[in-house]
Every structure is written in C-alpha cells, then in structure tokens.
Recover the amino acids of this structure.
C-alpha cells in the first residue's frame, strides 16, 4: 500500500514541477510558444485509443540563424476505446527546430522522457519529429509522437516492449 502511495505522490510532484516550469516560462514570454494538437493513435496505442488531444508548451533560444534549441513539455491525452481506460503522458524534453532560409518551412525534433499519468502504464523514451509551416505569429505542424518502453516482468516471461504513438497535427502560438 505504501508503494502505491509513493507512486502517486511522485506523479503529483512531477506534474506540479512540469506545470511550475510552464508557469515560470509563461511569465518570461520571450521565445515561448503555446498550442495544442489532435491526432490519430498508431503502433500499440491504436489498439487501446480512438484519438488523442493535447497541449504543447516550449521555450526556445535562437542559437544561430535558422536554429533554435530549447525545452518542451505539455500533455497528451489518449481517449480509450473497447473497454480500455483513457491514459495520458507528460513529456519533458529537449527541443530543436531548424528553419530553412527563404522558405516558410521547418523541421523539428523533441527528445526526452514521457511521464505516464496512468498508474498501470509506465513512462518511457519520448521522441517527436515534426515538419511544419512557419507563420509570423505561430506555426502549423505535422508530427509523429512516440513513447517507447521495455519492461522485464521476470518469472520467465522475458521483456515486453511497447510503443505508444500518434500522428498529430498541431498549432503553436508565439508569445513574445
């Protein structure tokens, strides 16, 4: 029982930390972007969820012409289907974005760890490559969100790998 309480306490602290980070970044508003996404679950998630909806937040620093690096977080909620519960993830990631000169397009990549908000689902390695269209006040993107994990259950069962994935379309507003 105490391990379950510790598990939920840890999740609450991680959630609080992620939202505190977003709150602190929102105060600065320099290089901050905030938006949302909607998507179709793929990989192992396609068996358990019908669609996904989420929020995105990032703070980016311009490193050199066309290249931005920063930190990203948010929340992705997967809506369960066929007797599966809803589940969600909070990514904590490093973010990179390259804008092509002379064209309003970009490529990006977020890499980090996704914290699961469901007690029966583990978090895992988080990656989200993106391709998008740059506008003056925001960006429209198409991305592939992937959360992978490998767990050894012992008892001769071996390791079990799973991938929660989603193809998302999203929009982020620049807050400067």
């Amino acid at each position: 029982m105490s391990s379950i309480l510790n598990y939920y306490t840890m999740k609450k602290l991680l959630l609080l930390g992620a939202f505190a980070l977003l709150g602190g970044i929102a105060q600065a508003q320099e290089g901050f972007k905030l938006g949302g996404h909607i998507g179709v679950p793929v990989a192992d998630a396609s068996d358990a969820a019908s669609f996904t909806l989420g929020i995105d937040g990032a703070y980016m620093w311009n490193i050199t012409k066309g290249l931005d690096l920063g930190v990203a977080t948010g929340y992705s909620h997967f809506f369960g289907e066929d007797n599966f519960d809803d589940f969600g993830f909070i990514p904590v990631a490093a973010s990179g974005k390259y804008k092509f000169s002379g064209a309003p397009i970009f490529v990006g990549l977020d890499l980090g760890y996704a914290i699961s908000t469901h007690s029966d689902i583990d978090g895992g390695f988080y990656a989200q490559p993106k391709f998008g269209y740059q506008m003056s006040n925001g960006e429209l993107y198409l991305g592939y969100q992937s959360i992978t994990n490998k767990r050894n259950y012992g008892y001769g069962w071996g390791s079990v790998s799973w991938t929660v994935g989603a193809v998302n379309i999203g929009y982020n507003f620049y807050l400067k």
Observations:
- The longest helix spans residues 2-28.
- The radius of gyration is 17 Å.
- The chain has one domain: 2-175.
- DSSP finds one helix and eight strands in the chain.
